[in-house]
Amino acid sequence: MLNKIANAEQHLYEQVAHQIQGLIEQGTLRPGERIPSVRRFSAQNGVSISTVMQAYALLEDHGVIEARPQSGYYVRLRSRELPPEPAISHPPLAAARVNVPDLVIRIHEAIENPDIVPFGAACPSLDLLPSRKLNRALGAILRRTNYAGVTYQSALGNQPLRHQISRRALDWGHHIAENDIITTFGCTEALNLCLRAVAEPGDTIAVESPTYFGILQIIESLKMKALEIATDPKTGVSLEALETAIRKRMVKACLLMPNFQNPLGCCMPEENKKELLRILARYEIPMIEDDIYGDLYHGADRPQPVKTFDKNGLVLLCASFSKTLSAGYRIGWTAPGRFKTQVERLKVTNTMSTAPLLELAIAEMLRNGGYDHYLRRIRKAYALQVQLTTRAICKYFPEGTKVTRPLGGFLLWVELPKSVNALALYRKALAEKISIAPGPLFSAKQRYPNFIRLSCGHPWSAELEQALATLGRLAGTM
Ligand SMILES: Cc1ncc(COP(=O)(O)O)c(C=O)c1O
């Protein structure tokens, strides 16, 4: 790539660029790894900072390295090293009763077993969570008063927490009044209440295909039906397919993840989000928007939720702190737009209100705990973990494997050759103490027999690499 400039007439910065490229080609610097900072390279090699900067800019232009905001330069995965991406899904346009296998419960159980390699559940590593800071926030609250979190509170939930959520929404350009927010036990309760507010048993809910199995479980438990809609691993749900379903009066409501969809990791382009809203408004169809991964973008900016553009109150935004602060605290929230009264009523009968002590701890963390600083760190960590896992898949998985290129979050959706049965692979992998999430769990009709979802929530290690080599070997023999 830089061969053309590797000759005697090179400028110094070109020589430096060539030297770095040599290190990459020899494998001293590997794809996904950080290269020395400009300052350090300059000091170590006795060249000026501006020369190193020019060299890095050249390498960046040639796609050899990439800059990550506030983090430095990293060796890029070259596209010839990346496996192709899976194609858009094509589920038939037919509503289905849902029956999610109990395998989901086994995948969740694996989280608690330290002997099992954790590619199954979408769970951040304990090493990456700011537990000490959270403990400190909780301690500060308990020291302040003897009665923190002891009494009942309003169904809307803890006011300081709603204030913090409202304030943070301003950062992505949206005003949600704190009284338009209801706190919940995780995103799960938010999705549950919102579904019950907009639909009844027997109604059909449009979902992406594939979709997060927890969403299918909730639809199943509420005796509703799921209508899987074609979804592109790059741009999200097909608006054409969705509008066809809505026009045919097949859909009561939608439940979608426009930002960093689970399991695809894709993010809907802003124009699609606006078009989606136009369709919803035209037919007066409510949409539950699951934005649980919204803060975990790998790029420069947070993508806005669809809710930001909603003028009609049709979007019920749901999220939680499970992927960023603590899944165990079970603190989530919803901004249910014009359905607030219904959701509030349902909240009262469901759990009365969320646990105020833990809400206060999260509010304190948002207010005073360096949450944004922490998010910056964790976003980089996840982007790197996703890259390194992709690289290992390239190396160890059978010919014909395809992998998504998530723009946020920490999940990879892997299409294996047709000969591989993901459920059989799940069992074989578990026998080797490796947990994965097989594709059929992500479909109401148990489609995706040769797909798996891999969670990259844990810092890269030799053990993870070894487990991926084992998975690749197992898949290769099927
Ligand atoms: C897309 C999505 N929504 C909701 C949830 C559940 O969130 P919580 O643990 O906050 O209930 C998850 C957890 O994996 C998820 O991936």
Estimate the global geometry from the Cα principal axes: globular
How many DSSP helices?
15
The helix fraction, in percent, is 25-40%
Note poorly predicted spans: 1-8
Largest sheet: 9 strands, mixed
Q: What's the CATH class of the largest domain, please? A: Alpha Beta
- The total number of structural domains is 3
Query: What is the gyration radius calculated from CA atoms?
Result: 24 Å
Structural class assignment: alpha/beta
The CATH topology of the largest domain comes to: Aspartate Aminotransferase, domain 2
How confident is the prediction overall: mean pLDDT? 92
Number of strands: 17
Fraction in beta strands: 5-15%
Q: What is bound: which ligands?
A: pyridoxal-5'-phosphate
* CATH H level, superfamily name of the largest domain: Type I PLP-dependent aspartate aminotransferase-like (Major domain)
CATH architecture of the largest domain: 3-Layer(aba) Sandwich
